[in-house]
Amino acid sequence: SQKIEQNSEALNIQEGKTATLTCNYTNYSPAYLQWYRQDPGRGPVFLLLIRENEKEKRKERLKVTFDTTLKQSLFHITASQPADSATYLCALENSGGYQKVTFGTGTKLQVIP
Amino acid sequence: GAVVSQHPSWVICKSGTSVKIECRSLDFQATTMFWYRQFPKQSLMLMATSNEGSKATYEQGVEKDKFLINHASLTLSTLTVTSAHPEDSSFYICSAREISGARGEQYFGPGTRLTVT
User: pLDDT (tens digit, 9 = 90+) per residue, B46-64?
Assistant: First the structure.
């Protein structure tokens, strides 16, 4: 069966350090992978998209890697700040799909001042 | 740019009544809108894909007669929860893709918290 797995345990990190979140998937052939941020009681906010033929993508303090062999994406936040505290979701759309995007369960990040 | 609004942001209704939730793309046109449901501490589950001018495509296990979707224009989709029951209480979120937007990127609304008593 298809799965998108993110660490369900909350990740606590000290301010200023780099936070690394993991997204593993099985039985998908994603055309691309996306990362979203979700704050409590709010809808997700798009952060980054990385395509299957891309290894790495950066945006300001964010970096995403995509390894289609390992079927894994890593999401990094450098110089983390308390304002980065939120739940981070990865999402996949299969190649050839009809635009259906499937989300992982998310990892809650807490940046401690 | 790329703002999606939802109305209402929260609603409490009695069991057996119907509730309509609106999703609007404010500054762009969206041929496709998506409706998700999210239970506490769980991920977003896609309920249906709404295409302007045509019938919605429902995910397996989602009752189309209970969750009525109407995508009346390129900027508006509505979800009506008919004969709501307490188990329908959830956080409903819509998203939209721009007509000319990059494949994949979706813009999400702020969500609607539905509580059925």
Answer: 999 988 888 899 999 999 9
